[in-house]
Design goal:
Layout: H1 2-20, H2 31-34, E1 40-43, E2 46-48, E3 57-61, E4 64-68, H3 76-85, E5 93-97, H4 103-106, H5 109-116, E6 119-123, H6 127-132, E7 154-156, E8 161-164, E9 167-173, E10 182-189, E11 194-200, H7 220-232, E12 238-241, H8 249-252, H9 267-286
Parallel strand pairs: 4-5, 5-6, 6-7, 11-12
Antiparallel strand pairs: 1-2, 2-3, 3-4, 8-9, 9-10, 10-11
The structure holds zinc ion (ZN).
Length: about 290
């Protein structure tokens, strides 16, 4: 009887460890996700501090900084170095945001939160996934944690404001890619003018299943449809996105080239991509 109890105890603790273990999916097919990229000033107080494809943004204010997205777990060191080489302090980071609760944007969040003590603010519908490291992700079928869980300090809803040091960001709830995918809209200034900046989360389709078969996300089709309409009606001057490839980062800004916000003002590229995504959605939604 005694040995039976001991076995049960061992089994129980083994299961607990397994449930808490973080296993980041392989990124071998995406070497650009880990490739370093020299950080640079996009416009005014908005800086690029991500990798060659996993976009991370730093907004610098007089009261501390806002960091949006963190790439993979292994990106932590790159982001820290990028912030430092721009002349800013990691410890000045006060607010952490994400455009979506996927491991390629949340991977290093826990480490950076621990290093800075910054407040994590998350779209309400991504809050459970951020807090459990992907365990409840609708497309992962409970495969386990894919990134280190992060405590959520503030839950955000569509059109909520995030304020710091004279900056005001508006969160736009753009669900589909994840339940709480979102974009951010805000004004920045440089010596010449004011720009309305959109950090867009493009609604690419994640699931291989038919929409009707995604029982973990019954509203998936209507959420995508809503997001596609919403994203066609945003007023902005300049845009970037969650992945560099989505806004042609490496073509618009060559490492070492001069400050040129105009490179990111091509709305044609934005609307062309939204149109492509609309077609992709329509095709999938039509499937019986
Ligand atoms: Zn994603």
């Amino acid at each position: 009887m005694k040995s039976y109890l001991v076995l049960l105890l061992i089994l129980n603790s083994y299961c607990l460890v397994q449930a808490q273990k973080v296993t980041e999916p392989s990124t071998k097919t995406h070497p650009e996700w880990s490739r370093p990229y020299p950080p640079f000033q996009i416009v005014g107080n908005l800086y690029y501090v991500g990798t060659a494809d996993l976009a991370c943004y730093l907004i610098v204010t007089s009261k501390g900084n806002i960091l949006i997205n963190t790439g993979l777990a292994s990106s932590a060191q790159l982001i820290k170095e990028n912030i430092k080489s721009l002349g800013f302090k990691l410890s000045d980071t006060k607010i952490l945001l994400t455009t979506q609760a996927h491991y390629d944007h949340m991977g290093a969040m826990a480490e950076i939160k621990k290093a800075t003590g910054a407040k994590m603010m998350v779209d309400y519908a991504d809050t459970p996934v951020v807090a459990d490291g992907g365990l409840s992700d609708y497309d992962l079928d409970g495969k386990g944690r894919v990134f280190e869980p992060v405590k959520v300090d503030r839950v955000l809803r569509n059109a909520d404001s995030i304020k710091l040091g004279g900056m005001k960001l508006t969160i736009l709830h753009h669900p589909g890619h994840t339940k709480g995918s979102c974009s951010y809209l805000f004004d920045v200034n440089d010596k010449k003018r004011k720009y309305r900046v959109l950090i867009a989360n493009m609604p690419t389709i994640v699931t291989n299943k038919k929409f009707g078969d995604v029982h973990t996300y019954p509203n998936i089709a209507t959420d995508y449809a809503y997001t596609l309409i919403a994203m066609k009606h945003i007023e902005f001057d300049l845009w970037v996105a969650s992945h560099g490839i989505q806004f042609d980062l490496t073509e618009k800004h060559k490492p070492g080239s001069a400050y040129n916000p105009a490179a990111f003002m091509d709305k044609k590229n934005y609307y062309a991509q939204i149109d492509d995504l609309q077609k992709e959605y329509d095709q999938k939604a039509r499937k019986p």
